[in-house]
Amino acid sequence: MEISNSFHKINIIQTPPQAKCSESCPPGFRKLTRKSEPICCFDCIPCPQGEISNQSADMDNCVKCREDHWPSHKRDTCIPKLIIFLSYEEALGIALTTSCIFFSLINAIILGIFIHYRDTPIVKANNRDISYILLISLMVCFLCSLIFIGRPEPVTCILRQTTFGMIFSISLSSILAKTITVVIAFHATKPGSKLRKWMGSRISYTIILSCSLFQFTLCLIWLFSAPPFPYHNMQSEIGAILIECNEGSMIAFYCVLGFLGFLASISFITAFLSRNLPDSFNEAKYITFSMLVFCSVWITFIPTYLSTRGKYMVAVEIFAIQASSAGLLGCIFMSKCRIMLLRPDMNSRKSITKNN
């Protein structure tokens, strides 16, 4: 608009009025209108957990990310969640893998020693064939813990608990067979004993085969009813996806563990009651101590396992497998290896009858 008179000429430029009391909200925030104030007056509040705002214009609501995604630090874009599982590359996985390989090598060395000295009295006196079965099963126990490390897959989830259950049942039934053989060998020497017909390896193989077959049946029922499978747990940790093995049927899982506990208990009780047999049959003393170590590890394992989550739950189970297997290996076989390697003078029928 232009106004003029004889003295002055004034130019007036009109602009529309502006009414704005709040600045625009940056990405990662949303508008919250103030009560009893004009609509242009609002507060900028951060998007809630799991939501973003990425538009330049002010947004009244944030947008929720997909279930497998998570907001960035600025909450302006969705990024994939971190994948978590116990891997071979991390420190914990490397430590467990190293210990597994170490114990497996020790086990293989002990097995080699027993094979090399297979015709000596100390090996023959301790049920040579059952010792071989026990040593091989313990070595597989160490190696089977490797299945628990790495990204869970359908095959590995099935193999984890079933392999563990089967191999441990062979180990524990071998120990039970050793213990019962000690008892039978002692009582069969009494005049008129009816246990003479059970002398020999037949009873030992029957125990191992029947116990292993029962555990195998439990595992088959488990696999055909509700087998383990990989599960993507998106609620365990914020901003992460925990890939773990769902056990499928927890009833079947606890039945497998329960049978192992039953074998361990029977072996411990039998060995404990036989510990005071004459010196020539005192392998029960070593078995008693080994089963005490085994049971202590697994009794401690149960509350620890139930109180942990994620990859640390897997690590606890691996530790229990290795610790209990190492306990059996050390308590039953190390003293015999010491005699064979360092005290060959004691590896004779006379010394074994007197001191073993």
Automatic annotation (TrEMBL):
<dbReference type="InterPro" id="IPR011500">
    <property type="entry name" value="GPCR_3_9-Cys_dom"/>
</dbReference>
<feature type="transmembrane region" description="Helical">
    <location>
        <begin position="251"/>
        <end position="274"/>
    </location>
</feature>
<dbReference type="Pfam" id="PF00003">
    <property type="entry name" value="7tm_3"/>
</dbReference>
<comment type="similarity">
    <text>Belongs to the G-protein coupled receptor 3 family.</text>
</comment>
<dbReference type="InterPro" id="IPR038550">
    <property type="entry name" value="GPCR_3_9-Cys_sf"/>
</dbReference>
<keyword id="KW-0812">Transmembrane</keyword>
<feature type="transmembrane region" description="Helical">
    <location>
        <begin position="129"/>
        <end position="150"/>
    </location>
</feature>
<keyword id="KW-0732">Signal</keyword>
<protein>
    <submittedName>
        <fullName>Vomeronasal type-2 receptor 26-like</fullName>
    </submittedName>
</protein>
<feature type="transmembrane region" description="Helical">
    <location>
        <begin position="312"/>
        <end position="333"/>
    </location>
</feature>
<feature type="transmembrane region" description="Helical">
    <location>
        <begin position="286"/>
        <end position="306"/>
    </location>
</feature>
<dbReference type="InterPro" id="IPR017978">
    <property type="entry name" value="GPCR_3_C"/>
</dbReference>
<dbReference type="InterPro" id="IPR000337">
    <property type="entry name" value="GPCR_3"/>
</dbReference>
<keyword id="KW-0297">G-protein coupled receptor</keyword>
<dbReference type="GO" id="GO:0005886">
    <property type="term" value="C:plasma membrane"/>
</dbReference>
<keyword id="KW-1133">Transmembrane helix</keyword>
<feature type="transmembrane region" description="Helical">
    <location>
        <begin position="91"/>
        <end position="117"/>
    </location>
</feature>
<keyword id="KW-0675">Receptor</keyword>
<keyword id="KW-0472">Membrane</keyword>
<feature type="transmembrane region" description="Helical">
    <location>
        <begin position="162"/>
        <end position="186"/>
    </location>
</feature>
<feature type="transmembrane region" description="Helical">
    <location>
        <begin position="207"/>
        <end position="225"/>
    </location>
</feature>
<dbReference type="GO" id="GO:0004930">
    <property type="term" value="F:G protein-coupled receptor activity"/>
</dbReference>
<keyword id="KW-0807">Transducer</keyword>
<feature type="domain" description="G-protein coupled receptors family 3 profile">
    <location>
        <begin position="92"/>
        <end position="356"/>
    </location>
</feature>
<keyword id="KW-0325">Glycoprotein</keyword>
<dbReference type="InterPro" id="IPR004073">
    <property type="entry name" value="GPCR_3_vmron_rcpt_2"/>
</dbReference>
<keyword id="KW-1003">Cell membrane</keyword>
<dbReference type="Pfam" id="PF07562">
    <property type="entry name" value="NCD3G"/>
</dbReference>
<dbReference type="InterPro" id="IPR000068">
    <property type="entry name" value="GPCR_3_Ca_sens_rcpt-rel"/>
</dbReference>
<dbReference type="InterPro" id="IPR017979">
    <property type="entry name" value="GPCR_3_CS"/>
</dbReference>
